[in-house]
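The instructor's notes for this session suggest beginning with a concrete chain rather than abstract definitions. Hand out the sequence below and ask the class to guess, before any prediction is shown, which regions might be ordered.
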Amino acid sequence: MFERTKLLIGSEKVEKIKNTKVLLLGVGGVGGYAFESLLRAGIGTIIIVDNDCFDQTNLNRQLHANNDTINNVKVDILEKVAKSINPECQIIKINQFIDENNYEELFKYKFDYVVDAIDTMKTKKLIIKKCLKEKIKIISSMGMGGKIDASKIKIMKIKDTSYDPIAKEIRHMIKKEKISDKLMVVSSDEKANITSPIGSISYVPAVAGLLCTNYVINDIIK
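After discussion, reveal the predicted structure:
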C-alpha cells in the first residue's frame, strides 16, 4: 500500500516510519485524524489511549463517528479501521481513563513519539511534564474548541503561542516547574468564541490532527 509514499520519500524512509512506535492520547476530534493519517503513513505500532464511546455529539467533527459507531468503544472501532486499511500496523488499545494514578504505566511501552490530543488538563500536564523531563519526543495539541479559521493553526514552540487558554496554562506550568520550554505544539492564534459547552466545527480539529502527524513523520524522515 505504500507505493506512492515510496515514490515521494524512498523505501528506506518508509521502513523508518514502519519501525516507529507512537503513543496517541485521545482519539476524538484531533486524535481521530492523527490516528488515521499515522496509520496511512505507515507507522508500525500505534498505542491508542481513550476510555470513551462515540456519541451523537461527536458526529460533527470526529472522523470515526457515524450512526453505526454510536455507543461503541472508540479504541475498538479504531482497531477495526486499522485492520481494514493497514493490517500490518500493530494496534495496542488502552481503554482506560488516564490520571495521576496510572499515567506512569504508559511509559512502559517504550514508544518513539507521543501525540497528545487529550482534553483533561490535569492529565495533559502530567504527560507533557514527564516527556519534557525525560526528553521524550512529543507534539501536543492545544485548544481547538470555539475556533473556525483553520488557516490560523500552526506547529510552533509553546513560548510562541497566543490566544490559547490551554497553551497559557502549559506555559505557566513549564515556568513554575522550571523545565524545558522547547515543547512543540499545534496551536491556533485565533481568539476562541467561548460558549458552554464549547462549540466546534468539522475541519478545525481535523487540521490540528493532521499537523500532529505532519510533525511526527517529518521528524522521522528529517
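Then share the key points. The first strand starts at residue 21 and ends at 25. The chain has a mean pLDDT of 97.
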